[in-house]
Amino acid sequence: MSGKTSAVTGRGRGTARRLRRGLQALVTVLGLAAALLLGLPGTSQAATQLPCDIYASGGTPCVAAHSTVRALFAAYDGPLYQVTRASDGATDDIGPLSAGGYANAAAQDAFCGGTSCRISRIYDQTSHHNDLTPGPAGTSGMGADRGADASEISVVAGGHKVYGVWISPGVGYRYTGAASGVAVNGAAEGAYMVASGTHVGSNCCFDYGNAESSADDSGNGHMDAVSLATTCYFPPCTGSGPWVEADMENGMFQGANGSNTANAGNSSPFVTAVLENNGQNTYALAGGNSQSGGLSTWWDGSLPTQGGYEPMHQEGGIILGTGGDNSNWNMGTFFEGVMVSGFPSAATENAVQANVVSVGYSGETNVPNGPQGTVTGPGGQCVDVAADDTGVDGAAVQLWNCQSYAEDQHWTHNVNGSLSTIGRCLDIDGDGTAAGTPVELWDCNGVGGQQWIQQSNGSLLNPQSGLCLDSPSDATANGTRLQIWTCNGTAAQQFSVNGGGPVTGPGSQCVDVAGDDTGGDGTAVQLWNCQSWAIDQHWYHNSNGSLETLGRCLDIDGDGTAAGTPVELWDCNGVGGQQWVQQSNGSLLNPQSGLCLDSPSDATANGTRLQIWTCNGTAAQQYALH
């Protein structure tokens, strides 16, 4: 849809082989649905019949298939998506763990460790090779799109950690031109996507599907994309959405000529959104919970009778996260989607929904959930980047009302002491050291102006200047530009790094919890290679002196006080065994025992269990809080 008319402002590939009609299709697909029961979440190999196999068996083959989560053909073993590393511009293709399986998130984590990555390409799994890349500027007036932060949102699918595509304003993808096999000029087609029903907005446009071959509004009927948004373009609407809608250009349609109060919306964390269009006079919409149950048919009837929609005039471009003219003001989270040739039967769509449910999607989809977290400051406001998730070099860093969905309010505290968001770091203008110098966003480059150390009094110290992050005159209003100033411990300098930060110890290893981000009471606390993506290596410094990760605190076994007692994770309860005070010599003192955090015999190997020991200032007791 055009934003101008919005109601609110060589790689290898694996071989990839409604709401109506057809007893023959029904029999075929019921057999497929039964076969799906053989595919169980928890293995790298997905069900025997995956969505594109199901569509092909129903006579409506996939012409585009995109996912950062899993293969959409049982035989597919090629790349799912490409990530580009911010530190050096290198790229890596992320594929499934096995043919027909789930994405190898560990490969992404290893490649992007210590820096950030963007998703620079989403591969088409069909033989048409209709890959998506960040889109060009369009006639909406928005600039070219940027790729999504590759680690912004992780969920579980098939028992595996996988990453979705976090769409913020300015993020979007496109196949520019007429994509191979995609419907044009009134041909029949269908599309579905699995997206978040909780990370949604009303601006234009969180779409997936057919769009103009160039990024400009060509008129009514030149788009045919499925949308999930809170956009009530043609009132009245039922409830507050989000609704599965059809963006057919210059309108977000829920039925007939727009309004359809029968569309009750889909607000589950994972939503299956379905659009079908025969290209001549009929279209259909359906939605369902991707975690359970079937599809609800929201519309199955006439195309809009306004000029241009009967017949359709599709151009065969493909968009994800934007409108046809690159209107990229909305937000959403995308996990998988396909486009097919022809008008799928109800049996086919229901079998695809059954397969989606078998994936076992789980996790939060409405907030960034990696090791990043908000940095709250004076007045409970959040440290924010001006310009709504589109910050470039030199963008002002300010205070703003906290918004759970704001990508640029979620910061990662890195091992080198930097704080990064949307691929850049919190920096002092000109790498300055004078009181009153404003702070800004800049490419992460390791300079002294990008080092921020959390102090015990709640301030964030920049060691190079010896000054602290500060809100001028204790201001708390939205848009207050932050600066550095003489450290004074006042409310103007109270900044809480809620995502925590790494604690580096002997051998530059990180203090880690055994069990990969799943630690319960009694879990060993140890040394391990620093991993920027590891949530359990980011420790929050509470005001009572405790160190917390995964919702639990660094504790001494049995609240003990004897030298050699191991440390562990335990529910935060304020006991003396959970108090840790940074000393001037770099050690972490537990006042109750009078002993320090220690690595036995100066060991630095992965898995070294930490303990308390007589304070001695040796390398075994050097722990830096970031």
Question: What are the SSEs and their pairings?
Answer:
Blueprint: H1 23-36, H2 51-57, E1 62-67, E2 81-85, E3 91-94, H3 105-112, E4 117-122, E5 133-134, E6 154-157, E7 160-163, E8 165-167, E9 173-175, E10 189-195, E11 207-211, E12 224-229, E13 243-247, E14 252-253, E15 271-277, E16 282-289, E17 295-302, E18 317-320, E19 332-341, H4 346-358, E20 375-376, E21 382-385, E22 397-400, E23 412-413, E24 419-421, E25 424-428, E26 439-442, E27 453-454, E28 460-462, E29 467-470, E30 483-486, E31 496-497, E32 503-504, E33 510-513, E34 525-528, E35 540-541, E36 547-549, E37 552-556, E38 567-571, E39 581-582, E40 588-590, E41 595-598, E42 611-614, E43 624-625
Helix pairs in contact: 1-4, 2-4
Written account of the structure:
The chain has 626 residues and is mainly beta. The radius of gyration is 26 Å and the shape is elongated. About 7% of the residues have low confidence. The strands form twelve sheets. Strands 1, 8, 10, 15, 16, 17 and 19 form a seven-stranded antiparallel beta sheet that branches. Strands 5-9-18-11-12-13-14 form a seven-stranded antiparallel beta sheet, with no helix packed on it. It has four helices and 43 strands. The protein folds into three domains: 356 residues, Jelly Rolls (Sandwich), CATH 2.60.120; 123 residues, Trefoil (Acidic Fibroblast Growth Factor, subunit A), CATH 2.80.10; 123 residues, Trefoil (Acidic Fibroblast Growth Factor, subunit A). 7% of the residues lie in helices and 28% in strands. The two termini are 45 Å apart. Helix 1 runs parallel beside helix 4.
